[in-house]
Specification:
Blueprint (H helix, E strand, L loop, with lengths): L7 H29 L1 H18 L14
Helix pairs in contact: 1-2
């Protein structure tokens, strides 16, 4: 009386885990191919430029400074 599905639940879980593992491998492969492509290199360069700009921001100083004179 413990199993109402005829014992297929373990098989379904195993098949689902296998499908998930294959999908993760495919996603990893696509990510690696993208990083090697020109678009991937351009995206990485853009992200690095944004990070560099954020690191060298005005650090709390006003953008426009007023001087009397």
């Amino acid at each position: 009386m413990c199993c109402f599905d005829g014992g297929h639940s373990a098989e379904k879980k195993e098949a689902s885990a296998e499908v998930a593992a294959k999908a993760a491998q495919a996603a990893q492969r696509r990510q690696e191919e993208f990083e090697k492509s020109a678009a991937g290199r351009a995206a990485r360069a853009q992200q690095q430029a944004i990070a560099k700009q954020a690191a060298n921001s005005n650090k709390g100083e006003p953008v426009l400074k007023w001087s009397m004179g």
